[in-house]
Amino acid sequence: MELTREEESALKGEHGETMQMAYRILVATGEATDAERLVPIEWAHLSGVNYNTIGDAGEEFLSSLSKDARVQVKTTLNPMGFDIDNVANYNLDDNFIEKQLSIQKSYERMGVTPSFSCIPYEIFVIPKEGTQVSFAESNAAIHANSVDGIKTNKESAFSALASAITGKSPYSSLRKDGTPSLTINMKIDDPNELTYGMLGFFAGKVGNNSVNISGVGDMDRRSCKALCGGMGTSGTCAKFVFGQGTPGCEKVDFDKKEMQNIHDELNTSEKGDMITLGSPQLGLEEISDLVVKLKGRSFTKRCMIFCPRSVKEQARNLGHTNELERAGCEILSDCCTCLTPLISKDDVDSVTTNSIKGAYYLKNSNGVDVNIKPLSQIIEEETR
Amino acid sequence: MKVLVKGRAQGKILKSKDPINFLGTVDKKTGIISDTNHPLYNKSIKDSILVFPHGVGSSVGAYTIYSVKSNDSAPLAMICQKADLTVATGCALANIPLITVDSEKMESLEDGKTVIVDSDSKDLIAFLE
To answer: Using the beta-carbon criterion (under 8 Å), do B67 and A58 form an inter-chain contact?
Structure first.
């Protein structure tokens, strides 16, 4: 990768240790993605916020970094481990809370907006088409490249952080207007959001950087987020394009057999002790729709709902939070199903969810059994 | 072959035929792989020359690589077939040499062999026997 004289001197340490570290990360990123130069970015979205995932080494690293580092572009944050408003209701020890708050403080000191959301595309204004950004949250990177018309690598936690501190990112293939070399033919009739989540999970496994998807009709926001979430979980693919693609494209079917394979991999229980909704976090549209679908009924077991804080505020003003609490829901902001410390195998054996991303991490990280089914079926079977 | 993170190390190859999801499956403190379905299950990546196809999964896996280094349980160097940003940036921050190789070279890197990885040498990887 070619660096300007200024970038070269930063890499040598002439602009201080923080800049040197950031450029070392950008150079490794550039070499890994065969980029020829760095380009300016306008927005960074960081992962590596939840103490549950970054641990003591991460907490100490951020604390030390924040003494000196300041972000140079708009920078937003992924969810953390809990919602401070109701953390007392869950079995989290004081050490966890203390370390999580230290992480929050470090990011704020660096000038980061404490959005604690994995759906930045739903709560912030999307910049104009073609804008270069750096999103580390995988579902958000895929949504940005595929739906929002803005461009990002499938960043790592450190590459997005280095981009925030320098305002730059390697100009890799995903940032250019290339066409995918693989087309997935969707062969499932009457798909729901769970089907789309599994389609995404399949695409992530078979796709490399990007894929075409054909045979898909109109998709609501819930299904689109499920597709992005599933895709980001299973592989390195960071973009989808609807259509057949160019004639030379390799083709692969997503049929009943492929879907059954993914279902068998992730569905380890026929029932759940509790329900979680939101991975990615729910937006206002999905919360409003949930209220409509409930039609005054209540959940028959615990149901945790995860959404951004700003969405919870809006939902409160519309009376939705009252209605959902009446229906027995626990509404949590600033955190997410994915990698939550609030669900422990000491308390529950199995969890029902409509999220493929949530299912993967509940199974592999929380170590609980998972029962996957679409929201319509959850409401039919788990409310009265 | 390509150098993604510079450096020099000498050690024994620990080889995996499957990709590694650092966030989900590598213990931050011990470097031991906890995924029962993984070929390196119950082995520690500590002080090895870790050879594997590429990393997969969460972007936060880069923090796991940094954590194992901080806890003195990291590999001495890593060799991959395909570069992914999680591994590349994790190694960059933790100062773990990282080199990508083609499939033929990958074949020749057998588990248990002793090698020297040196980003400043012409061959990058040399067998010591």
So the answer is: yes
